[in-house]
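dumping this here before i forget
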Amino acid sequence: MARDLGCLATDLDGTLLRSDMTISERTVRALRAASARGTLVALATGRPVRWLQRVYDQLGASFPAVCANGAVVYDPAAGKSLHVNPLSPGVLLEVCERLRAALPSARFAVEIEDGWLLRHEVDYPLRWAAGDPAATPVASLAELTSVAAVKLLVRAGQADPDELTALVAGCLSGLAEATHSSSDGLVEISAAGVTKAAGLAWLCERHGVPAGEVIAFGDMPNDLPMLEWAGRGVAVANAHPAVLAAADEVTGSNDEDGVAAYLERLPSAGQLTS
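structure:
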């Protein structure tokens, strides 16, 4: 049974982007062809808004983005956030205090101003954010948690990301969401109920697209809620084992243009089959 493809949502790092952080011409053509047929094409990423411009430069298109794991829905054409669901200062402080008590080595950073700025503790390991002009150190936990944040970032030495995420999630007791999207021990925390699925659902409702008409692509645990919510969840071959196990289908890896290859194999333009 065929049904319309109302929305195509794709993660960026490890899914749409190749290992060299580029997007192939084949992938660009596939996404733009879907958009030209009337499909809502959406980027769904853990990245903050400020890290999207190089992606848009490669795509040559202003696709809306679900950023910060669902906390921000961004319209690049208008240059503004359409929907924001942050952690409040009170919740931020409680989360940090709980984690510091359970994990004294934990160090924190927060994405603020809808993801345009980063504040971090002085001894927080920046790693991928090293040299980011938007990153500012602060002297105290009170200052770090004084304003709402779309994401709290947690590092604790060289801990295994799956194990650290499980430990962090166990400390939160429904207070917030914990996930990860990297292999270097970074845990990403959002407000309770905020996931890529929630952000994408908000965007799809705005465009009148039901979940059954959505296909989503991803590779890491932060993609799991979105893949499970969408009518069709597709993992790239290089995905985390939990994502491979949960996906409805598996396509080629990010370096094999897996998203484009899957779209090219759809039985007819703009349709999914059950």
